[in-house]
Write a structure and sequence with these properties.
Belongs to the auxin efflux carrier (TC 2.A.69) family. This protein has helices at 3-26, 31-55, 61-92, 99-107, 111-150, 167-180, 187-197, 200-214, 217-223, 228-247, 253-263, 271-277, 282-311. It has one domain (3-311): Na+/H+ antiporter like fold (Up-down Bundle), CATH 1.20.1530. Helices cover 79% and strands 0% of the residues.
Length: 312
């Protein structure tokens, strides 16, 4: 992988975030605009990235095996990150009552909003497909391990599985089903999904830029001391652990690169929404997301360089 391509992609992402911050000056992020952005990204752009990737990749038995492997690796990496966050929170922030939030913020990455568009830009349709499958593994982790940790009674209810039934997941299932039976849609549909897929990265970065401008200084000062553990684990320790783990296996190069890049992603954007739903600290979730995204613009190229030393 060309390091200059990674740097250029991160630079473009940075510029998009800045544009989002500028937009927030005239149109501040409120509940209505927040819902609109999330709906456009999650329900339109991301499913189209998934479908576009599937339409442009030749499916065979070997490819389906790789897809299953990526899904399993995703869940393993997510759980390892959560465990690392839990351990470090208990070691360095013993008096904190935010251990469960810290653990989840340490393991769950922004593999959808940033990861899928970035892998599509760096690795093409195959990388985008693997990235989408990795993101599906993150969703499974969120609505199983994550929900159990956030609930006070710590019980898993089958109704939480309903939250996993969403449009991106449906796009994966429908796309893979069509690919398995070698069903190709008309060219006009392929062209439409290609164009709508291009909306994912700009919309996601605009949203993050607007989130940055919406943070209150008092909340930032109060919550920053509790964010260094999840940010350190998510951006540095978990990617390094993943590099060493993946290096032990002889996997396909694109698969390895996709899994490693996804492990480097900053904290999940929807953390604040998830925490609000289960009466956790949503402000800490939002702040960690923003800070880790900004720092990720520096750490991702560095981690990609470290990755290249092991792969090449």
């Amino acid at each position: 992988m060309e390091f200059t391509i990674v740097f250029q992609s991160i630079l473009i992402i940075t510029m998009m975030i800045i544009i989002g911050a500028i937009l927030a000056r005239t149109s501040p992020l409120n509940n209505e605009t927040r819902t609109l952005f999330i709906n456009m990204i999650v329900n339109v752009a991301m499913p189209c990235i998934i479908l576009s990737s599937i339409f442009h990749v030749d499916m065979n038995e070997d490819m389906f095996r790789k897809i299953v492997l990526v899904f399993v690796l995703s869940i393993i990496i997510n759980v390892v990150g959560i465990a690392m966050g839990w351990i470090f929170a208990n070691l360095f922030q013993k008096g904190s009552n935010r251990t469960r939030e810290i653990a989840l913020l340490s393991g769950l990455g922004n593999t959808g909003f940033i990861g899928i568009p970035l892998c599509a830009a760096l690795l093409g349709p195959e990388g985008a497909l693997y990235a989408a499958i990795f993101d599906a593994g993150v969703d499974v982790t969120i609505w199983t391990v994550g929900v159990v940790m956030l609930q006070k009674n710590r019980k898993f209810a089958l109704q939480t599985l309903k939250s996993m039934i969403n449009i991106p997941t449906a796009a994966i299932v429908i796309g893979l089903f069509a690919a398995f039976f070698n069903m190709k849609p008309p060219e006009i549909i392929i062209g439409l999904t290609d164009r709508l897929a291009a909306l994912a990265a700009p919309l996601a970065m605009f949203y993050i830029g607007m989130m940055i401008m919406g943070l209150q200084r008092g909340i930032v000062r109060q919550s920053v001391p509790q964010t260094w553990v999840p940010i350190t684990v998510k951006l540095i320790l978990l990617p390094i652990a993943t590099i060493f783990m993946i290096h032990l296996f002889n996997f396909d190069a694109v698969l390895i690169q996709t899994v490693l890049i996804q492990s480097m992603m900053p904290t999940i954007t929807l953390a604040s929404i998830l925490f609000a739903r289960y009466s956790a600290d949503e402000q800490m979730g939002a702040l960690t997301t923003v800070l880790s995204t900004l720092l990720g613009l520096i750490t991702i190229p560095f981690m990609v360089y470290i990755m290249s030393l092991f792969i090449n």
